């Protein structure tokens, strides 16, 4: 089964073709980062318009990359939520229209299920049960995965998501949007231990997170400092270490609580080098396993939607022709 996947939930237009026999055939991505940079964040209306502009050229690019004609497809998957409603509507309308015109089944995919399943796209030997750490700009969740579609939420953030905390912290130290990856790059040159911030909610039982207080701690440290580039790097390192350590402590707890041996990490913050190294060390210590998608498939992309959609279509799930999206949607 060859499935076209479309992702337009936020500021990335992603399209991919996944073949259930041959794996990922092609993927194409356009990022709107430059468009939103001057506003310091994603402007929903501009995002929708840019998806409209880029989506069909990317569909053509992905099909050409896969060496396929539209008639060679067996299904269409698109992100149906959660995300920005206008942006979602672009992918949903285009996906449904393509499916209708080609007489194919279409399926709306949960964006976070796409992230959650992305590591399986990279490694066909990886199978549930496992614990998933989902760390993106909008979500921070620990999920027990018993099977495809069998998800139990173990814990989540009570305020900012981990990626959001990276972005906001970067902004308050004057880094350009999108600050998360830039802050992580800066942290590489910072001295460990020069600044120490708390590991929120690790001193009490449970698997929930809270990252908004860290941002305030960083703001106070930054305002009281000499604000040199070296100090900024040191603070970035202190902040990153606090987030990474907090996530690692909760992952360890989730593995102990569920008895799972495998940890899967997905979402944009999963691209963070220090988080990857720390969770790798945790897995080795527990003689378990940790799996990450390649960094490009940690952040938003069409491949994860094509893959999750293919699994759903293979299981016989598809929808009536109405176009609907769900901007707020629990998994
Ligand atoms: O999954 P994603 O592309 O979009 C959402 O679904 O939110 O995640 C984007 C988030 C942003 O907050 C970004 O700052 C963060 O992932 N991010 C990183 C890194 N790369 C992306 N955070 C820390 N370190 C990175 N290397
Ligand atoms: Zn995402």
Automatic annotation (TrEMBL):
Q: Which organism is it from?
A: Arenimonas malthae CC-JY-1
Q: Does the keyword Ribosomal protein apply?
A: no
- Superkingdom of origin: Bacteria
Asked whether the keyword Cytoplasm is assigned, the reply is yes
InterPro entries membership: ATPase_NBD, Gcp-like_dom, KAE1/TsaD, Peptidase_M22_CS, TsaD
| Reactions listed under catalytic activity | L-threonylcarbamoyladenylate + adenosine(37) in tRNA = N(6)-L-threonylcarbamoyladenosine(37) in tRNA + AMP + H(+)
Binding residue positions for substrate? 134-138, 167, 180, 272
Q: Which cofactor does it need?
A: Fe(2+)
GO cellular component terms given for this protein? cytoplasm
Q: Where in the cell is it found?
A: Cytoplasm
GO MF terms here are: iron ion binding; kinase activity; tRNA N(6)-L-threonylcarbamoyladenine synthase activity
One of the protein's GO biological processes: tRNA threonylcarbamoyladenosine modification
Q: What class of enzyme is it?
A: transferase
Instruction: Summarize the protein's role.
Output: Required for the formation of a threonylcarbamoyl group on adenosine at position 37 (t(6)A37) in tRNAs that read codons beginning with adenine. Is involved in the transfer of the threonylcarbamoyl moiety of threonylcarbamoyl-AMP (TC-AMP) to the N6 group of A37, together with TsaE and TsaB. TsaD likely plays a direct catalytic role in this reaction.
Q: What is this protein called?
A: tRNA N6-adenosine threonylcarbamoyltransferase
Q: Which residues form a coiled coil?
A: none
Cite the entry's keywords alphabetically: Acyltransferase, Cytoplasm, Iron, Kinase, Metal-binding, Transferase, tRNA processing
Entry's NCBIfam families? gcp_kae1, T6A_TsaD_YgjD
Recorded name of the encoding gene = tsaD
State the family it belongs to: Belongs to the KAE1 / TsaD family.
List the Pfam families hit by this protein, alphabetically.
TsaD (PF00814)
Q: How is the cofactor bound?
A: Binds 1 Fe(2+) ion per subunit.
């Amino acid at each position: 089964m060859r499935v076209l996947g479309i992702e337009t939930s936020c500021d990335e237009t992603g399209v991919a073709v996944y073949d259930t026999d041959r794996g990922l055939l092609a993927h194409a991505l356009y990022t709107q980062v430059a468009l939103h940079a001057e506003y310091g964040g994603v402007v929903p209306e501009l995002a929708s318009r840019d998806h409209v502009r880029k989506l069909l050229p990317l569909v053509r690019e992905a099909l050409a990359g896969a060496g396929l004609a539209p008639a060679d497809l067996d299904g269409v998957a698109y992100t149906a939520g959660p995300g920005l409603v206008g942006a979602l509507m672009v992918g949903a309308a285009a996906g449904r229209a393509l499916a209708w015109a080609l007489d194919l089944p279409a399926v709306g995919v949960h964006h976070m299920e796409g992230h959650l399943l992305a590591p399986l796209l990279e490694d066909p030997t990886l199978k549930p049960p496992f614990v998933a750490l989902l760390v993106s700009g909008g979500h921070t969740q620990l999920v027990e995965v018993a099977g495809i579609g069998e998800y139990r939420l173990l814990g989540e953030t009570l305020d900012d998501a981990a990626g959001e905390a990276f972005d906001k912290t970067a902004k308050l130290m004057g880094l350009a949007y999108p600050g998360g990856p830039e802050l992580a790059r800066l942290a590489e040159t910072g001295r460990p231990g020069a600044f120490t911030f708390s590991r929120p909610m690790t001193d009490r039982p449970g698997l929930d997170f809270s990252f908004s207080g860290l941002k305030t701690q960083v703001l106070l440290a930054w305002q009281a400092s000499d604000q040199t580039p070296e100090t900024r790097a040191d603070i970035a390192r202190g902040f990153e270490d606090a987030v990474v350590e907090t996530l690692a402590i909760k992952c360890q707890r989730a593995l102990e609580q569920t008895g799972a041996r495998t940890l899967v990490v997905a979402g944009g913050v999963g691209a963070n080098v220090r988080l990857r190294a720390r969770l790798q060390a945790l897995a080795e210590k527990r003689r378990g396993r940790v799996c990450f998608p390649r960094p490009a498939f940690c952040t938003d992309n069409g491949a994860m939607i094509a893959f999750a959609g293919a699994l759903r279509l293979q299981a016989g799930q598809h929808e009536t022709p109405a176009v609907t999206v769900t901007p707020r949607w629990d998994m």
